[in-house]
Write a structure and sequence with these properties.
Two copies of one chain form a homodimer. Chain A is an all-alpha fold. Chain A has a two-stranded antiparallel sheet with strand order 1-2. Chain A has helices at 15-22, 26-34, 54-66, 71-79, 89-123; strands spanning 41-42, 48-49. At the A-B interface, helix 3 and helix 5 of A face helix 3 and helix 5 of B. Chain A binds a DNA duplex through helix 2.
DNA sequence: TCTTGACCTCAAGTGAAGTTGAGGTCGTAT
DNA sequence: ATACGACCTCAACTTCACTTGAGGTCAAGA
């Protein structure tokens, strides 16, 4: 099938077309479908057919991944949308704002870690109880019992 | 054996003692040894005995991990030390300075990502070619062909 | 008709950083 | 003498996000 034939512009997409247009591998698309992140119907010959908005869904997934959001969380977020619809601009605003908060948190943790490291490079002590890098239980990062935010790569 | 008997202060440590004093699991110590991060000799009864400086080595490993350095890299760094000695304050200064650069880089990437996201939350476009979040090939993070720094969780 | 290419399913492999379990040994306290 | 805890090895399992491979189907072009 010719790619980008103008007459086909509103037709659903095969898995290969989705792969080409979204930049992800075919196997990844299968995988996302198995995880419920995207959906397809089947042609008479049992081939997947994707509505065009799958491209936007994949875009959202990819951006969320760059933000460090795990696939399972992305899947959950997408399921909160009415009818499992593809995120509108409004939906995206809500989702991305939430994810941005996690990102902020992670940046804050890493920044504190860096500052602690800066203080510590000179001393070379690494002494337990004195060195802020040694035990994660101080203000460097709220750890210990209690709720835990998005894994800050501790 | 009583723990912390003053008479034993200069003896080598069993794996259980190392675990207790370093706060890592026994299985983790086995694992680190298998990866060449630490070393031990064996007692007459085939039990591991660790020189005391293993505690400092483990401290270095743990801090490096918090910085996001993969174990394989830590292992390599430790091997660059003469005789595979445990890092001195001077060694630590050198190693941690290098790792701090990676950390800085990661923070910079995440910060740019956040800024891009901030600009994008309002628009909700996610349009390829316009949205800075969509393609990682712009100044957001130097990708594409060429050397690649420490994986910025793309 | 035959071959090619895109597609299908399902199972298994990858790598990081360990954890868990089975089955066995060592040494000491009772 | 025996029980107990700490130790031993080795293999297999875990999670995440996929990739790879084997074996099979389907439709179109030469």
């Amino acid at each position: 099938m010719a790619i980008l034939d103008p007459a086909d512009m509103d037709k659903d997409l095969s898995v290969g077309e989705v792969a080409e247009r979204s930049g992800v591998a075919v196997s990844t698309i299968h995988f996302y479908e198995s995880k419920g992140l995207i959906a397809s119907w089947r042609s008479s010959g049992n081939q997947r057919r994707f509505p065009r908005d799958v491209l936007r869904r994949i875009a959202v997934i990819k951006v969320a991944q760059r933000l460090g959001v795990p696939l399972a969380t992305i899947a959950q977020a997408l399921k909160t949308l009415p009818d499992g619809r593809t995120p509108t601009a409004e939906d995206w605003k809500r989702l991305s704002a939430a994810w941005k908060a996690d990102l902020d948190e992670r940046i804050a943790v890493l920044t504190k870690l860096r500052d602690g490291l800066e203080d510590c490079i000179g001393c070379g002590c690494l002494s337990l109880g004195e060195c802020p890098l040694r035990n994660p239980w101080d203000e460097l990062s709220e750890d210990g019992p209690g709720p835990r935010l998005l894994d800050p790569r501790r």
